[in-house]
Each structure stands twice: as C-alpha cells, then as structure tokens.
Amino acid sequence: MVSVPAIENGRLTWTLDVPPDRELAVRAILAWDRLARQSPGRLRPCANEECRLFLIDRSKANAARWCSMAVCGNRMKARRHYHRSRA
C-alpha cells in the first residue's frame, strides 16, 4: 500500500495506490486505526457474547455496552429478566 500525495487547488491530498480488490479493506483498516487513536477506549466489542459487532461509544459516561440497544441490548435485558423471573 502506498499513499500518493498530490496538490489540487492549492491543497495537499492523498490517494491510496492499492489494487482495486483491496481498496475497501485498506480504507476500513485506516478508518479503524484513526478512530482508535482519536477516541481511545471508545471502540470496543458488543457485550453480547453472541454478537460479532463492535460499537463506538459516544455516551458521555463511556458506559455503552451493546452495538444496538434495539437488538442486542433488548435481547440481553430480556434474557436477564427471564432468568430472574424463573428463579
């Protein structure tokens, strides 16, 4: 992978020089790295062990647990409620 600099309209721009079949993967890795450096501790896996997604915690307290409250959060809360009510 090579980043190639260019000057367009008086501004410095960078373009990736990668094979087309790898460009999406390279861009994803670069975005992941940028996010991990700019917001350390905000990028983490979902707390649902059955989920393979990650979340970007934008909450003030940095306490988000699930990739989606509507999907994983609801499932986990319903599961806990079910186990509590059965006990």
Commentary on this structure:
By secondary structure, the protein is of the alpha+beta class. It has one domain. It is 39% helix and 23% strand. The strands form 2 sheets. A two-stranded antiparallel ribbon has the order 1-2. It has a two-stranded antiparallel ribbon with strand order 3-4. The relative contact order is 0.10. The mean pLDDT is 89.
Topology:
Layout: E1 2-8, E2 11-17, H1 23-38, E3 43-45, E4 54-56, H2 69-86
Antiparallel strand pairs: 1-2, 3-4
Please summarize what this structure is.
The protein has 87 residues and is of the alpha+beta class.
What are the defining features of this structure?
single chain; 87 residues; alpha+beta; two-stranded antiparallel sheet; two-stranded antiparallel ribbon
Read across the widest sheet, the strand sequence of neighbours is 1-2
Relative strand content = 15-25%
**How far is the first residue's CA from the last residue's CA?**
56 Å
How many separate domains? Answer: 1
Element-by-element helix/strand order: EEHEEH
Largest beta-sheet characterization? 2 strands, antiparallel
Q: What is the count of β-strands?
A: 4
Helical stretch tally: 2
The Rg value, from CA coordinates, equals 20 Å
Structural class: alpha+beta
List low-confidence stretches. Answer: none
In which range does the helix fraction lie?
Answer: 25-40%
Task: Compute the average pLDDT.
Answer: 89
Shape: elongated
